[in-house]
Amino acid sequence: MARPLATIGYEGKTVDEFLDALVRARVELVIDVRAVAASRRPGFSKSALAAAVAELGIDYVHLRALGTPKPGREAARNGRIAEMHAIYEEQLATPEAALALAQAKAAASERHAALLCFEADAGHCHRQIVAERLNDDKTFEVTDL
Predict the structure, then answer these.
(1) What is the DSSP letter of 35?
(2) How far apart are the C-alpha atoms of 68 and 132, rounded to whole Å?
(3) pLDDT-derived band at 77, boundaries 50, 70, 90
(4) Residue 72 near residue 84, CB atoms below 8 Å
(5) Residue 123 has pLDDT above 90, yes or no
(6) Model confidence over 80-93: pLDDT tens digits?
């Protein structure tokens, strides 16, 4: 039976809406796949977010190596999604990213995890690529929250 794996973006969400979505989905672990786990949006920077989910009994881990490099983030912001994907594929070819993918897969195999990034639309975000890589053997049933 496939294990659940969620993806979630916080764009357009309040912290409460974001946390409610995690609780409703019964997420046990947030895997932050942002290169920079900081946000101009209050409550979504690494420390604040980790504390907020911990209050709900949800664990948090930041896997920076699974983040999109700056040129990829710039491409995505400018709507150049194919370019962002190409840049991100180069990132995934690094040894650091391979290790982080293995860590994410191991963690998500033990607990219901959610891959976190900013972008609301998973189709325009690198977290969908991460989910596809983690699910290359159909271990997971992926849901976008």
Answers:
(1) S
(2) 15
(3) confident
(4) yes
(5) no
(6) 999 999 999 999 99
Sign of CA dihedral 121, 56, 25, 100: positive
Q: Could you tell me the strand order of the sheet in which 113-117 lies?
A: 59-62, 29-32, 113-117, 3-9, 140-144
How far apart CA 102 and CA 72 sit, in angstroms, is 22
How far is 145 from 7, CA to CA, in rounded Å? Answer: 6
Residues 6 or more apart whose Cβ sits within 8 Å of residue 66: 31, 33, 97, 100, 101, 104, 126, 130
Q: What is the pLDDT of residue 133?
A: 95
Which residues lie across from 71 on neighbouring strands?
none
- Written as one letter, the residue type at 81 is I
What's the whole-number mean pLDDT along residues 124-133? Answer: 92
Gyration radius from the chain CA atoms: 14
